[in-house]
Design a protein that fits this description.
single chain, 90 residues, alpha+beta, NE0471 N-terminal domain-like, three-stranded antiparallel β-sheet, 14% helix
Length: 90
């Protein structure tokens, strides 16, 4: 049996931030969110700065002017974060 695998390009059509989470809506209808604190620069950004996220490079990148930060959509969706999850204290 032959299987045909098609890879869908991961492209964002919009992005927004609320309560220190950044959300992406992808062209296939999925909504993906991640904690801003998983990235060094975004972890230091204010809530107002996080809200100014822009989708750039034809949906392949996220951009913040202040702070000066760029992330790839594919990298974020793949879970390539800079920092580990904070330890939970029991």
């Amino acid at each position: 049996m032959n299987a045909i695998v098609t890879e869908t390009e991961i492209v964002a059509i919009r992005a927004w931030a609320e309560k220190r989470f950044v959300y992406l809506e992808l062209t296939d209808g999925r909504i993906y969110g991640f904690p801003a604190d998983r990235f060094r620069i975004l972890g230091q950004a204010s809530e107002d700065q996080l809200k100014k996220v822009q989708v750039e490079v034809n949906g392949h990148a996220l951009r913040w002017e202040e702070p000066d930060e760029d992330l790839t959509v594919a990298g974020v969706v793949a879970g390539r974060f800079q920092l580990p999850l904070p330890r939970q204290v029991a």
